[in-house]
Amino acid sequence: MTASLIWIASQQHERPTVSRQSKATQPTTPKPFAVVILDPGHGGQDSGAMVGGVMEKDLTLDLARRVDRLLDSQGVATLMTRLGDTYVSLADRAAIGNRVRDSIFVSIHFNEDNKPVATGVETYYAAHQITSGSVLASWLPFLSRPPSNSPKPESQSLAGFVQEALVARTRSIDRGTQAKQFFVIANVISPAVLVEGGFLTNKDEVSKLASEDYRDQLAAAVADGILRYRDAVGQRKSTLAATDQKSAE
Length: 249
Known about the structure:
Blueprint lengths: L1 H9 L24 E6 L9 E2 L2 E2 H18 L3 E4 L9 H10 L3 E9 L9 E5 L9 H5 L13 H18 L3 E6 L3 H4 L5 E8 L3 H7 L2 H37 L1
Parallel strand pairs: 1-4, 1-5, 5-8, 6-7
Antiparallel strand pairs: 2-3, 6-8
Helix pairs in contact: 2-8, 5-8
């Protein structure tokens, strides 16, 4: 575990750029989204869950970087809400999401529980998401229009794809997808989910997280879920476009 944490710390200044544009050739039909916003939870003075010297903020940044590299290799443009061990407020994280049009938002976290036997992975979507924003709302999300009365279907779909991939890749206990009003996913307009990649209060899961191979599998799962969501939305859009074209003929 110590070696793992040293590795994480040594990587914190590895990537100086925040965003990239896809190097892939532009397709003939619009993509379901243009940018994936990766939000490593906590940072700076906010360590998140901390058990035996293992800090959530280090693991979230490490995992986000791994997902970032995998998406980049697939030609997907990304943006991270933080690149190092810095504090970013919840409002600022949501504001980043609302300033980037045509995006999806994936916040990465790890769990803790009073019961050391608690285990598994889960993915959240907001029960009520803001429906639209303004220039002011991009800085102060809570001043935007009232939230929707029901969960955003796109966020539910994204959560389902990510959760399915997490369970398939890691073989962890499936805690499912759930609706909850986490600020960062409730106050962005785009499809948004929050991933809980395991319990730091569970000794077995902490032991797994010390392994780079296991963290690679977690990252691959998140990336897989995002890509499967992209493909599913793209297919639906293509089908609708074809239907509309036939109707117009």
